[in-house]
UniProtKB/TrEMBL annotation:
UniProt-recorded Gene Ontology molecular function terms: isomerase activity
Database matches in InterPro entries: IolE/XylAMocC-like (IPR050312), Xyl_isomerase-like_sf (IPR036237), Xyl_isomerase-like_TIM-brl (IPR013022)
Protein name, as recorded: Sugar phosphate isomerase/epimerase
UniProt keyword Isomerase, yes or no: yes
The keyword Isomerase is annotated on this UniProt entry: yes
Gene3D superfamilies given in the database record: Divalent-metal-dependent TIM barrel enzymes
Positions of the Xylose isomerase-like TIM barrel domain: 23-228
Length: 247
């Protein structure tokens, strides 16, 4: 069974100390960080240690990685991260065509070199916009993955499904280039409207058995449980951990 982590972004509406205490009590031992947490590294480190949690992976904005890679490396090393993922581009900055995405992928590879040289895994975390057909069946995520075998992927299963794609086929396509998977469930049509249409893992419409099997065949060794907007993060964390542990 892979390591199981929790993406802290889903608990951004709760106090950090409360969240970490809750996650520790629920049975988590790992969390994944995101940009809003890194402003007080001393406080974050103390709170993690107090609750027996490790921040094994982290999201950092691409602009920050490009502007100050050493700060990213220092933070990653401080918290014991094994991997750094760039997670998003705002709509107005996204490339509009294949050539634009090819240029973006080249810049992503370059941005990751200092991170990789420091001994860390570096890669990209997808949403749904990278899965739009750019022509001839090629997507932006294809372009990113093909830019370098050293550029890893954190494949978000929920966004793959939201994009209308088959997650098993996508896992098989990218194979060992997938380092981490975001385990995120989709609510039934008309349900979960107060939670942006997401669900607790195992309580939505996603059939996890073939996805889990495909991820294991690809050698993915870490699952990060995520919900973009839970209205009860304790309910989400506990039910989701139970479901993923039962995979």
């Amino acid at each position: 069974m892979p390591a199981i982590s929790y993406q802290m972004y889903g608990s951004r509406n709760w106090a950090l100390a409360e969240t970490l205490t809750m996650l520790s009590a629920a049975g988590f031992s790992e969390v994944e960080g995101y940009g809003g947490l890194y402003g007080d590294p001393d406080g974050l480190q103390a709170a993690l240690q107090q609750n027996g949690l490790r921040m094994t992976t982290g999201h950092f904005g691409l602009a920050e990685i490009e502007a100050d890679p050493q700060r990213v490396i220092d933070l990653a090393n401080r918290f014991g991260m094994e991997a750094v993922f760039a997670p998003f581009i705002v709509a107005e900055e996204r490339p509009k065509d294949l050539a634009g995405w090819q240029a973006f992928a080249t810049s992503l590879v370059e941005a990751g070199k200092p991170i990789q040289d420091a001994g860390l895994v570096f890669g990209w975390h997808n949403h749904d916009f990278e899965l739009v057909d750019l022509g001839a069946g090629v997507t932006a995520l294809d372009v990113i993955a093909q830019a370098s075998p050293d550029l890893k992927l954190e494949l978000d299963i929920g966004w793959v499904i939201r994009a209308g794609q088959d997650p098993v086929a996508m896992i098989q396509k990218y194979g060992s280039q997938i380092k981490v998977a975001h385990i995120k469930d989709v609510a039934a049509q008309g349900a979960g409207l107060d939670e942006d249409g997401w669900s607790d893992v195992g309580h939505g419409v996603v059939g996890w058995a073939p996805i889990h099997a495909a991820l294991q065949a690809a050698g993915v060794d870490r699952y990060v449980i995520e919900h973009d907007n839970p209205n009860d993060h304790l309910r989400f964390a506990t039910r989701s951990l139970n479901a993923v542990t039962a995979f």
